[in-house]
Structure formats: C-alpha cells, structure tokens
Write a structure and sequence with these properties.
Layout: H1 6-13, E1 24-25, E2 34-36, E3 41-46, E4 52-58, E5 63-69, E6 75-80, E7 90-96, E8 99-116, H2 118-121, H3 130-135, E9 139-146, E10 166-168, H4 170-173, H5 178-191, E11 195-201, H6 213-217, H7 223-229, H8 242-247, E12 258-262, H9 274-288, E13 295-299, H10 318-326, E14 333-336, H11 353-366, E15 378-385, E16 388-394, E17 400-404, E18 415-416, E19 421-422, E20 425-428, E21 434-436, E22 438-442, E23 445-449, E24 458-461, E25 471-473, E26 482-483
Parallel strand pairs: 2-8, 8-11, 8-12, 9-11, 12-13, 13-14
Antiparallel strand pairs: 1-3, 3-6, 4-5, 4-7, 7-8, 9-10, 15-16, 16-23, 17-18, 17-25, 19-22, 20-21, 20-24, 22-23, 24-26
Helix pairs in contact: 5-11, 9-10
Length: 486
C-alpha cells in the first residue's frame, strides 16, 4: 500500500526546496474517508506560498498523482482522476519538501451531505428502537464525518472544524444523524458500495443561515436579502449565510453526489416564500460545490399538532409544505413525504427509519437507475366538470388507495383502508369560501364534490399542520399535501 508508483516518485524528485510553512490538508480529509466515485477527486490544503505539493492516491497496483504549486496565500488545490468504487482500500499521500501526510483505509464510493435543523440532527440514540438499531450499526463500509457546530460567522471559513472520518459502528453511529444513517444504510444495502455521510446540522436553525450569498443572488424574489448583505455594513436577515460560512464553506468544493435536507420548522411562518428560499439554498450549494448536477432531496414537514381547528381552508404548516412541494420545479430535486409518520405532540417524531428510507428511494431511482416507485401521489393537474373537480396525480405507482399507518411510532407497514373515500380534501366556491369535499378514488384520479359548492374554483389537500390523512399509492407511499391557489 505504501509503495509509490514510478510516476509519483518522479514527481517527488521535482519538488521545490524544503517548505517553511506547515503542510496541511483540509480537515474534511482523513483516514477512513470515502471519496466520490466517477467524479474528479478534489483535494486541497495549505503550504508555504509557492511550494510544490504532490498529491498521490494509490493501492497496491495502481496510483495517480498530481503536482501543484501553492498560491501566494499558501492554498493549493488539485483534482485527481475519477475512480470507480471497487472496494479496494487506498492511501492518500500529500508531500511537500520533507513534510508528508498520509491517510489510510480510504474507500471510493458514494458521498452525501446530511444537513438541516433538529430533525436531521436527531441521533439514532434518541429515535425509535435505539438499542436494537445501535447494536446492529455494524457497517464498516459506511463512513461517518460529523462537522462540529461552529459559532455563526460573517465570513466564509477557509476550513471545516476539525473532525475525523470513522467507520460506522455502534459507538460511532449512535450520536450521528438518524435520518442520515438510515438513508445511507439503505443505499449501502441496495448498491453494495462504500457510503460516506457528512453530517452538518444544527437544531432550531432557519434556512437562510445555510445559504451562501451566490444562492440568494440567483433568486430575484430574494433581492432584499442580497441588498442587506451588500450594504457597507452588512446585515444578515434571518442570520443569512452565517452557518454556511462556519459549517459548509470549509467542505467546498468536495466532490459529492448530493445532499439530503430536513428543515423548515423554523421557517414555517414564511409559508409559500419557502419555495424561493429553497431555490436559493439548492442553487447556492450547487455553485459552491462546483457541481450543477448536485442532487438535492428534502423532507416535507411531518404532521404536527399546531393546526387551525381542522377548518377546510387550512393554515398552520400547510403553506410551508406547499412551498417545499413547489420547489420541486428545480431539476434533480426530490421530496420525501412523511405526513403519516409524524407525532401531533412531538415536533421530533421518533420514526426516522421511514424518513431515511423514503429519501433513499429518490436517490436510488434518480441517481442510481433503480426501476422503483419512489414517491407517493403528487398533484399534477385538475379539471372542473360542472360541480365536480377531477384531480390527476404523478407517481400513481400501482394505483391509488386509502390506507393507514399504525403503531405508537407509526412504523408498521401501511394497511389498505376500507372503501375509496379520502380525507382532508377541500374545495373553494366562487365567493372564496372553502368547504370540505367528498373525495373518491376513481381509477388513477380523485373526484371531488360538495353539496355546498356549485362552481368549484380551487382545491386543497391536507393543507394544515396536523390533518388526518389516508391517501397513498399501492406501494404504501403517502400523497403530498397541495393547494391549487397561487
């Protein structure tokens, strides 16, 4: 493993005189890490300004190497050729003058960032079935990297807070993001390649602090934030950019496949505006990670008991969920719907297994070509016929059905319901008043009607914080809430 190829050895001979400043590699690199397959392997760090740095990646038979000079600020950057996930352990060597850094037990596979607020931060130890899940968390080819929380910063930090990659074990996994772990476990099982998970999350945070300036700049509806950041004395509305600066900037531009995201409770009051905020986050991360194809999958907020008394017009968390749904207009995005596995009395529902699995379905289908049904029904269009509304859906799968989730943590499989009448649908009349609708499945459509509405003008489904829902496809995936009102 430690023998260098002739190519690497030759580059070492060409090194400049001994470096003065300490050679350093960015903190996101360490032994036991996973490098993203099928993408250039980006590596960076710092050395004496102008010093020659040689970066090599080798196994017993093959090696690649690159020579680069540190800039005036001491930073160096290089990209090694892409590799396939072959299961071999590699060694990464970085050499400058008489200084050498070696990282061992490195794998090539799939790398994902796991980010958001407390429901992403929520650990396996605090989620459902903790003892059994922790005892079984023995996955040496899943590797974990948890970014320490860092006080909010007004400027991007050049490096992530110091941490280290660790193989997944009961000891290392118990404090890691449960959603991230269950997502990664599902990918590992289905793909049989090494999985790297980078956790960077912070409870109680809004979306704006996680967004880089370039993200806000690409969304016209967020101009007020851009203007505030560009003032002579910058202002940070919503804490804009400050957690990105401290907990994401130092990870860039690591090669990764994508990101999963669970956040929105702290932005619930923004309602439909969350669509624009989400666009800013996704576009911003794609820019700073230098990856326009960065996949981005998020969790729609679960049901939670802050409703408006079950009124047909809805309210509460309905609008912010709709903002999350509408953000799917961005390419290479997806959304796990979890309206059936929340907890009316707990903003941190314990069932994180299904959350991770539903996120993984999107990745398996979109990134890894698996022929599976990966989403529950999503609103597609509607047609008014007399006093009825006929609603069409994407992701019908094997068909539409009524169903229920059981168990204290709603972890039992979805059970088919009785009949074909759905709950939580409402329609709006000509005067703008909302009324509960009779909603019946007819084939792959839903037909709505109300004795109180002669000329329907709009439709809503589950448009409240904690509505009672029973709408699934036959694969057991729940329908997303929606409204047709702009």
């Amino acid at each position: 493993m430690k023998r260098l190829t002739a190519l690497f050895a030759l580059l070492l001979l060409l090194l400049a005189p001994l470096a003065q400043a300490e050679l350093k590699v960015a903190n996101v690199f360490s032994s036991h890490m996973v490098l993203q397959q099928d993408m250039p392997i980006r590596v960076w760090g710092w050395a004496e300004p102008g010093a020659t740095v040689v970066v090599g990646l080798s196994d017993l038979k093959n090696a690649s190497a690159s020579s680069v000079k540190a800039g005036e600020d001491g930073k160096w950057f290089t990209a090694l050729p892409a590799r396939k996930a072959e299961g071999k352990t590699l060694q990464l060597q970085v050499v400058s003058g008489d200084e050498k850094i070696e990282f061992d037990d490195i794998l090539v596979g799939e790398v994902w960032i796991c980010s958001g607020q407390s429901n992403m931060e929520w650990s396996i130890a605090r989620s459902a079935n903790p003892n059994e899940e922790i005892a079984n968390a023995k996955h040496p080819k899943i590797r974990l990297f948890n970014v320490p929380k860092h006080v909010k910063q007004n400027e991007p930090q050049k490096d992530a807070q110091e941490a280290t990659w660790t193989p997944c074990s009961p000891e290392t996994a118990k404090g890691f993001s449960a959603v991230g772990y269950y997502f990664g476990r599902e990918l590992s099982k289905e793909l049989d390649v090494p999985i790297g998970l980078v956790g960077t999350n912070w409870g109680g945070t809004r979306i704006e602090p996680w967004t880089p300036p370039v993200g806000f700049e690409q969304v016209p509806e967020l101009k007020s934030i851009v203007d505030a950041l560009n003032q002579e004395t910058p202002k940070y509305p919503g804490g804009a950019t400050q957690i990105y600066n401290g907990m994401v900037a130092g990870l860039t531009p690591l090669s990764v496949r994508g990101a999963i995201w669970y956040q929105g409770e702290s932005n619930a009051g923004d309602g439909l505006r969350y669509e624009h905020l989400k666009h800013g986050l996704v576009k911003g991360w794609r820019e700073v990670f230098d990856n326009e194809d960065l996949s981005f999958y998020w969790v729609q907020l679960a049901d939670f008991g802050r409703g408006h008394g079950g009124k047909p017009e809805g309210g509460g968390w309905g609008p912010v969920r709709e903002g999350q749904r509408r953000a799917l207009a961005l390419p290479k995005t997806g959304m796990a719907v979890i309206m059936d596995i929340g907890d009316a009395k707990d903003i941190h529902p314990k069932n994180k297994q299904d959350v991770g699995k539903r996120l993984a379905l999107w990745a398996l289908a979109k990134d890894y070509g698996k022929s599976i049904v990966y989403s529950g029904p999503m609103y597609k269009s509607h047609e008014v016929k007399g006093s009825k509304v006929i609603v069409s859906f994407d992701h019908v799968g094997g068909g539409l059905m009524t169903g229920t989730k059981g168990g204290d943590h709603r972890m039992d499989p979805v059970q088919p319901g009785e009949g074909n009448e759905l709950l939580a649908f409402s329609i709006r009349d000509e005067a703008g008043a909302w009324h509960w609708a009779k909603a019946v499945i007819e084939g792959d459509k839903v037909v709505l009607s109300s004795d109180a509405v002669k000329k329907p003008t709009a439709v809503r489904y589950a448009y409240d914080s904690d509505p009672e829902v029973n709408f699934y496809n036959k694969e057991g995936l729940p329908a997303s809430p929606f409204t047709t009102v702009d």
